[in-house]
Amino acid sequence: MTGPLLSLNHVSHRFAVQRDWPARARQKTALHDISFTLDRGRTLAVVGEGGSGKSTLARVIAGLLKPSEGEVRFNGIDMYTRERELQLQLRRHVRMVFQNPNASLNPRTTIGQQLELALQHLTQLGPRQRIERINEALSKVGLQADHKDHYPHQFSTGQRQRVAIARAIMLNPQLIVADEPISTLDASVQAQIMNLMLDLQDTLSLSYVLISNDLAIAKVMSDQIMVMYAGEIMEYGPVETVYETPLHPYTRALFAASPSIRDVMKVSSTPLRGELGSAGMAAVGCPLSRRCPFADEHCKTARPERRLMEQQLVFCHKAGEV
After folding, report:
1. Mean pLDDT over residues 116-139, rounded?
2. Helix 157-169 vs helix 127-140: angle between axes, to the nearest 10 degrees?
3. Per-residue pLDDT reduced to its tens digit, 262-275
4. Are 88 and 169 spatial neighbours (Cβ–Cβ below 8 Å)?
C-alpha cells in the first residue's frame, strides 16, 4: 500500500474547563494545528516537558479522543469514521500501551480472561483459536502460556508491562502508540522492555509512536523525533539530525538540560527565561515568546509558519538566525 501509514492534518483539540454556574464554561486548547506523517515500520518519538500535550496527542492518534479540528488518517481511513466495520478494523490495527501497567489491568480477573475479552470484541475467533492466540502473544513477550491463569498481582511491574504489550500485539496491529511505556520501571527492566519492543518491531513489522520524557531512550528507539511545547510542534525531523543540530531555541534548551544529549549537540544553547508554559497559553504569537531570549515583537504577535531547513521542520521566526 502506498502513502504514509499515519497522517495528521491540522489537528487541534480543546477541553471544556468547568466554571461555577452561571458562568459559561471556557475551553482550553491542548493541541494546536498538529500535522505530520509516519511511514510503515518507523518510529516517531514525541518529546517535551510535562503539560506539552504529548499524552493528549497519543489518545487522539489511538482513536480514544476525537480532535476538535483536523483529521487523523490511518492507511488513508478516517480514524473517527462512523462505519462500524471500519471502526473495528482500526481498533485492531492501532493499539495503545499505557504508562502504568498496574492501572491498565483489572486486578479481579486473570490475565487470560482480560486478553480473551479483547479478542471476543474485536475478532471472530472461536474459543480454541482465542486461547492459541493468547499463548502465542505471551510467548512473543517472553512469558509462559500458564501465565494466562495468573492475576496481575502475581506479576512484577515489568511482567505486567509485558502483558500490556501482549494485549496490544495479539490483534496483529500495524501501529502501537506507547505512552511512556517504561518510565515506571527500574533501569534494568527498562532496557529489557526497550529491547523487546525493538525486536517486536523487526519481527512483526510494527510502527510506533513513542511518547517519552527520556531523551536518551527516544534517541535509541526512534527514527524521527517531534518536539512539543504548550500543545504545539516546535521541531520535527530525523532523530540523528535533530539531536546533533537542533534549530529551535526550545529544542536546544530541552536537550541541553540532559547531560548525555548535550554532549552530542553541535550547537550551543541559551537558557530560557521564566517557567514552563501550558498548552493553549498563547492565543497569538509563538507560545515560547514569553521565555525565549531571542523573541521580539513579531514573535509575540504572529504565529511562526512551518519552515523546512535541511531535513528539519522548524516552527520559529528566527530559525537559522540564532
Report:
1. 96
2. 130
3. 777 766 777 787 66
4. no
pLDDT digits (tens, 9 = 90+) for 129-138: 999 999 999 9
Place of cell 550547537: 267
Give residue-wise pLDDT tens across range 145-199.
999 999 999 999 999 999 999 999 999 999 999 999 998 889 889 999 999 999 9
Q: Spell out the residues 6+ positions from residue 259 whose beta carbon is closer than 8 angstroms to its own.
A: none
Cβ 74 vs Cβ 94: under 8 Å: yes
What is the distance between the alpha carbons of residues 21 and 26, in angstroms, rounded to a whole number? 12
Q: What are phi and psi for residue 209, nearest 5 degrees? A: -110, 115
Does residue 59 have a pLDDT over 60?
A: yes
- The residues with which 313 forms a beta bridge, in sequence order, are 236, 308
Question: How many CB atoms sit inside 10 A of residue 153's CB?
Answer: 9
CB 314 within 8 A of CB 307: yes
pLDDT at 279 over 60: no
Q: Is 274 left (phi over 0), alpha (psi -120 to 50) or beta?
A: left
